[in-house]
Amino acid sequence: MMARAWQALRAWARDLKREVLALYLAARDKRTPWLARVLALMVAAYALSPIDLIPDFIPVLGYLDDIILVPLGIWLVLRLIPDELIAEHRAAAMAMARRPVSRIAAAVIAIVWIGTAALLVWAVIA
Q1: What separation in angstroms does the CA of 89 have from each of 18, 52, 53, 82, 84?
Q2: Which of 39, 44, 84, 100 can pair with 24 through a Cys bridge, CB separation 3.0 to 4.6 Å?
Q3: CA Rg, the chain, in Å?
Q4: Which residues form a coiled coil (predicted)?
Q5: How many Cα atoms within 13 Å fall on the side-chain side of residue 5?
Q6: Helices 61-80 & 2-27, crossing angle to 10 degrees?
Q7: How far, in Å, CA of 88 to CA of 110, rounded?
Q8: pLDDT of 15-43, one tens digit each?
Q9: Which domain holds residue 80?
Q10: What is the rounded distance in angstroms from the CA atom of residue 35 to the CA atom of residue 76?
Q11: Are 69 and 53 a contacting pair, CB within 8 Å?
């Protein structure tokens, strides 16, 4: 029973991530109404930002804003975007999610960050 609940939660999180990506794509589309574009950017930025309204280290309340505010924002923005337009962006988001992840690119980015941090430490110490 617990495994099924965990799978359902993972599927919900995956769908939520895809919806946020679709909103981001819709926000960049000139055919999207301006109010929906602004709200879509705000929801996508909040969902992807490491900074929360209530910090995650606060028990229960820390995740409550993510569980309530993000889906509520998605719901609101989806009501403002025409159905055929959001369907187009959902398809694009689904296609992007299926693309393979480049481990080499991730390693290069990590090396650049580590090198930058090392240079910063060296500059402060020297």
Answers
A1: 10, 26, 28, 11, 9
A2: 44
A3: 19
A4: none
A5: 2
A6: 50
A7: 33
A8: 888 888 898 899 999 999 999 999 988 88
A9: 2-101
A10: 11
A11: yes
Structural domain includes residue 43: yes
Count of domains observed in the chain: 1
Secondary structure (3-state) at 50 = coil
Q: Tell me if 119 is assigned to some domain.
A: no
Helix (H) / strand (E) element for 2: namely helix 2-27
Instruction: Look at residue 14 and tell me if it is in a domain.
Output: yes
Q: Which amino acid is at 30?
A: K
Note every long-range contact of 13-21, with CB atoms under 8 Å and residues 24 or more positions apart, other chains counting.
14/97, 16/47, 16/70, 16/71, 16/74, 17/97, 18/90, 18/93, 18/94, 18/97, 19/74, 19/78, 19/90, 19/93, 20/44, 20/47, 20/48, 20/70, 20/74, 21/93, 21/96, 21/97
What pTM, to 2 d.p., does this model score? 0.64
